[in-house]
Backbone:
């Protein structure tokens, strides 16, 4: 599934998720609801939770 980034997400001065760009994501296999494992620039993989300010994730 594709998710639209709402705000730049950076780490150590490098932007891995760019505002207004769509990224692939899938539901994370963890206990709890609303976590999406996203694939960003440079193939960075990170989990975002429901209610974060970077992606609109509804569950």
Residues:
């Amino acid at each position: 599934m594709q998710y639209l980034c709402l705000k730049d997400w950076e780490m150590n001065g490098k932007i891995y998720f760019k505002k207004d760009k769509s990224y692939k994501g899938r539901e994370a296999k963890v206990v709890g609801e609303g976590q999406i494992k996203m694939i960003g620039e440079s193939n960075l993989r990170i989990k975002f939770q429901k209610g974060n300010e970077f992606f609109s994730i509804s569950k």
User: Anything to note?
Assistant: The CA atoms of residues 34 and 50 lie 5 Å apart. The longest strand covers residues 22-27. The chain has a mean pLDDT of 88.
